[in-house]
Amino acid sequence: MNLILRIIAVVLIAGLMVFPAIAQDMNCSDFRTWREAQDFYESQGPGDPHGIDRDGDGVACETLR
Ligand SMILES: [Ca+2]
């Protein structure tokens, strides 16, 4: 019984750690202007964690320009 409770606790904690990352994933359609998208992209640092610069040229959401 104790082991089951521990497993449940670990799963819940892991879920809380993973879920915010998914909830905050941004797409180009979440921005109204290219400037807004670009500012967000630059604020996220290197690596493009949200995948809004798929071609990796440092310019986010070319479709909004
Ligand atoms: Ca780009």
Structure description:
With 65 residues, this protein is mostly helical. The chain has one domain. Helices cover 49% and strands 0% of the residues. The chain is built from 2 helices and no strands. Calcium ion (CA) binds at residues 53, 55, 57, 59, 62.
Percent range for helical residues?
40-55%
Overall SS class: mainly alpha
Small ligands present: calcium ion
SSE string: HH
Low-confidence stretches: none
Largest sheet: none
The number of strands is 0
Rg calculated over all Cα atoms: 17 Å
Summarize this structure as a short list of keywords or feature phrases.
elongated, mainly alpha, binds calcium ion, 65 residues, single chain, 49% helix
Topology:
Elements: H1 2-23, H2 34-43
Bound molecules: calcium ion (CA).
Calcium ion (CA) binds at residues 53, 55, 57, 59, 62.
How is this structure best summarized?
With about 60 residues, the chain is mainly alpha-helical. Helices cover about 50% and strands about 0% of the residues. It is elongated.
